[in-house]
Design goal:
- This protein has three helices and six strands, in the order E-E-E-H-E-E-H-E-H.
- It is of the alpha+beta class and about 160 residues long.
- It has a single domain (about 25-145), classed as Alpha-Beta Plaits (2-Layer Sandwich), CATH 3.30.70.1290.
- The protein has a four-stranded antiparallel beta sheet with strand order 4-5-1-6, with helices on both faces. Strands 2-3 form a two-stranded antiparallel sheet.
- A hairpin with an 8-residue loop joins strand 2 (about 35-40) and strand 3 (about 50).
- It is globular, with a radius of gyration of 17 Å.
């Protein structure tokens, strides 16, 4: 009997994702479906930006409720979030440790959006990157900031929709 291939672990083995520091997280829609909106406005004055759908607006509103977000972008079929987790005890209103972990924040976002929309919109899992330097942080910030303008070159780009 053939065994199924093992999934590659998404997280860095043995790393504590509640440690203070910066994290770059990408969460995709189920089947990379364009649920969050479309990229519009390639004109010179405004520049490309994402026109959010109702679900995309829900994602954005939910991200606003997360206190540790430095930068983010809601794209048609994925979300990029740059998180900065504080040192223990430095969270807003004495936030407890579990709410300062990357997995907790991702679960909160996915669960809240799913409950609000009444359907599953997310793929299983998510991608993360531990930000290790100021140069890395600035590169990621710029990547998020320019993501709509580079949508057709994005690794998550698909032809369907925006």
């Amino acid at each position: 009997m053939d065994s199924l291939p093992k999934r590659k672990p998404n997280r860095l083995a043995g790393y504590d994702y509640s440690q203070s520091g910066c994290y770059f997280v990408t969460i995709c829609t189920k089947d990379r479906e364009h649920l969050f909106g479309c990229v519009v406005g390639a004109d010179v004055l405004i520049g490309p930006h994402v026109q959010l759908s109702e679900i995309g607006a829900t994602v954005k509103q939910t991200i606003f409720q997360i206190p540790f977000v430095d930068q983010y972008i809601v794209m048609p079929n994925h979300v990029h979030i740059l998180l900065r987790l504080p040192a223990s005890g430095n969270g807003p209103m004495g936030t407890s440790a579990p709410t300062r972990s990357v997995p907790w924040i991702v679960r909160y976002l996915k669960r809240t959006v799913t409950m609000t929309c009444g359907k599953t919109v997310w793929q299983r899992g998510y991608h993360d990157h531990i930000v290790r330097s100021e140069a890395d942080y600035l590169r990621i910030w710029s990547y998020i900031d320019t993501n709509p303008a580079k949508w057709r070159e994005d690794r998550y780009y698909t032809e369907t929709g925006g």
